[in-house]
Amino acid sequence: MPDQVEQWLAELLRLNDEEEKVTEKQIKIVQAAVEIFAEKGYSATSTSEIAQKAGVAEGTIFRHYKTKQNLLIAIVTPIMEKLVAPFVIRNFQEVLNVQYEHFEDFMRAMLINRLAFTRKYAPVLKVMIHEIPFNPDLQAQFMEHVSTNVVERVRRIVVHFQAQGQIIEAPADSIVRMCASTIVGYAVTRYLLAPERDWNDDEEIDLMVRFMMHGLSLNPVR
Amino acid sequence: MPDQVEQWLAELLRLNDEEEKVTEKQIKIVQAAVEIFAEKGYSATSTSEIAQKAGVAEGTIFRHYKTKQNLLIAIVTPIMEKLVAPFVIRNFQEVLNVQYEHFEDFMRAMLINRLAFTRKYAPVLKVMIHEIPFNPDLQAQFMEHVSTNVVERVRRIVVHFQAQGQIIEAPADSIVRMCASTIVGYAVTRYLLAPERDWNDDEEIDLMVRFMMHGLSLNPVR
Amino acid sequence: MPDQVEQWLAELLRLNDEEEKVTEKQIKIVQAAVEIFAEKGYSATSTSEIAQKAGVAEGTIFRHYKTKQNLLIAIVTPIMEKLVAPFVIRNFQEVLNVQYEHFEDFMRAMLINRLAFTRKYAPVLKVMIHEIPFNPDLQAQFMEHVSTNVVERVRRIVVHFQAQGQIIEAPADSIVRMCASTIVGYAVTRYLLAPERDWNDDEEIDLMVRFMMHGLSLNPVR
Amino acid sequence: MPDQVEQWLAELLRLNDEEEKVTEKQIKIVQAAVEIFAEKGYSATSTSEIAQKAGVAEGTIFRHYKTKQNLLIAIVTPIMEKLVAPFVIRNFQEVLNVQYEHFEDFMRAMLINRLAFTRKYAPVLKVMIHEIPFNPDLQAQFMEHVSTNVVERVRRIVVHFQAQGQIIEAPADSIVRMCASTIVGYAVTRYLLAPERDWNDDEEIDLMVRFMMHGLSLNPVR
DNA sequence: TATGAATGAGCTTTCATTCAT
DNA sequence: GATGAATGAAAGCTCATTCAT
């Protein structure tokens, strides 16, 4: 029943769908930009290249986005919001309490959900990863969205399951980081580093869930 | 006794230490370049900026490195080699068999050793991470060094400990990936994302080792 | 009775008043254009800026004026005509003979009349002054209107009063130029350079008339 | 003996002659720029046009002057300083008292001196006149140099000769303005509007001096 | 009639690279 | 070896103008 998350999410997204009209040319520009940004990096991409690939005049890009850096932000912002949307849902914690009796269920749901998201937006996410460290505006966005919204909320989830005795007592930040590393490590390998490899996603997900659950279990080993 | 690794490593490095003479100006150039590359990214950095920060004339950079991209490679290559050096040692597997009876010992040794390395070369590693995806030459280097040398060798280690029944039967690649994710996730958070936070490295290392060992243990949970 | 000039002028203007209908938008465009042209100069003003200030679409400007340079000419031409209108009157010389027995009366009348005009159209006159030297079309207009019509006619007036022994024998062109300099010098200082200063126009006019009359008198000095 | 002014001036200018080294290319750039600025106006002149006329690469302009507007200022500033230099001389007033017993001598000296200057630097002065109203930096320069230094000092000269009873009692500002108008009016007509005409400078100077002296004399007319 | 999206030429400026000194 | 003036290609961006709606 993890898709329930997606349900609550839906209402949130409906707002976003009513965005200002985007012309056909704008869509082409964004598509071209994402492709080339992902391929050569933002700074190494020229606006004339984007215009050419998008099949529009260079001036058209600047009519709509004013600056090149504005185009980058216009691309990244909505994806950044969608990236954290499942965590930003109003009654996040209660939902999870009801939905996911065990930490394992929660982990699996999140894993599946966000991996699907990664598959869908892989190129934009690649651009995000590479440009956030060099772009103060994106950094601020990231700080606000991810740090404030996601890490803090997931932290509380971890504490919650720790209180229930489901997972080990250890700094919640560290636990969050290790789980995130496992998931992000898979996402990066799967969709950015070696997308051409023959992946068995179900098996990998099972393995990761087992790895994290065992890793955080209270049992002594051997 | 993990420092033994460093001993074998020494012989390897001796070759590197006998590099061609580098002038004082070259050192300043490289220092300046690394700093600015790490701060703004390779493409967004101009050679005049590097020259200014290094206190040399712009022509001097090109006298030594011919092109800007050459300078990048001159910076990254030796660090890439040092990064994988501990794995490239000739009799790697035998050494490990003797040195590390348990997978845990091996993991811990590697973790400590490579984290020290990351701390030392954090800026260059940041540049590497960001430029490898966009630079064919660096990509080739990375493929050769990391894929061929490291992953393949560590893979065999994993298989070795699987055969001994120390860790679960699962695709070795996946196990390598999950461990690498855990370590790299820490390194990135520790030295790139939040270096200013108050870190307790020993505790974190213990936690990660426990996380990985439990995660890969044969025991059923609960 | 200098307003008599204005009377003759009236007939001339009646033609101009029957101009083609100008829409409300056109007026706004011209107002905006004059303001910005006067502030930043013609070349440094963009049509989009004019459109924005006028509250119309950029296309509307081009629907009415075809080109930017056309807009400039549409602004300057009628003012240029009005500027020289008092001199262009058909029976100019006779009128003056009757009206103004003394050169001083003529000078004073002209001074007052054209200063009022300058006050009214100061911004457009500023644009004119700045663009005539760089715009062949405006140059031609200026040559025709000012040189042919004004200078030549005023020249004849000067000769007339010289013949009467009211003013010194000297090249009429030089006399015209010195009087024009005195008047234009005041107009420029008064309305362009230091409009915010506290001016006593009547006193200044008296002083200028005295300056010119003494300057051109036959009396020896001292 | 009006050239005495030039003598005192010499010492001042010697400082300026020891300017920083200007390369041959810089001179060509400035020459080309002045010519085209004077012909089409600053805003309507492109840097590529300047580069072409100067026979240098476009980049060379920016290596030396950083921005186009900087080039303008580099051209105008020294001429603005030279323009006011004769007035800025330290013991200006005393010098004049000794040198010029009569206001007429002073006027004639100034007239001849500054007209020679105008002839020499006519193109730059044209650029100055046109760009000062639209360029805040030049405006500030002009205010400081001309208002503070020139007008104020000449004002005092006028007051001095008024006290001696050589010229009429009238607002000194107005007297300064009328004399300046006469001179500038000639300079503009002579060197900018109709340089091709056949001018008799000596005669014009005599006439202007007479015009101003009579214009400011205490005698009643007629 | 009025609009404003679209254009592409041209703008100022930056850049990696060369080379005479 | 080191310099920094010079380069010209290409960058991001602006502009006057057009045209389908």
Question: The CATH topology of chain A is what?
Answer: Tetracycline Repressor, domain 2
pLDDT < 50 runs, ≥5 residues of chain A: 1-18
Number of helices of chain A: 10
Q: In CATH, what is the class of chain A?
A: Mainly Alpha
Strand content of chain A: under 5%
Head-to-tail CA distance between termini of chain A: 34 Å
- What is the rounded Rg of chain A? 20 Å
Anisotropy-based shape of chain A: elongated
CATH superfamily of chain A: Tetracycline Repressor, domain 2
Indicate the percent of residues in helices of chain A: over 70%
SSE run of chain A: HHHHHHHHHH
Oligomer: homotetramer
Number of domains of chain A: 1
In round numbers, the mean pLDDT of chain A is 87
Structural class of chain A: mainly alpha
> How many strand segments of chain A?
0
- Largest interface, and how many residues on either side? A-B, 38 and 38 residues
CATH architecture of chain A: Orthogonal Bundle
Give the gist of this structure.
Four copies of one chain form a homotetramer. By secondary structure, the first copy, chain A, is an all-alpha fold.
Description:
The structure is a homotetramer of 222-residue chains. Chain A is mainly alpha-helical and 222 residues long. Chain A has one domain: Tetracycline Repressor, domain 2, CATH 1.10.357. In chain A, 77% of the residues lie in helices and 0% in strands. Chain A is built from 10 helices and no strands. In chain A, helix 5 runs parallel beside helix 8. The longest helix of chain A has 29 residues. The first copy, chain A, is elongated. The two termini of chain A are 34 Å apart. In chain A, 31% of the residues are buried. The N terminus of chain A is likely disordered. Chain B binds a DNA duplex (21 and 21 nucleotides) through helix 3 and helix 4.
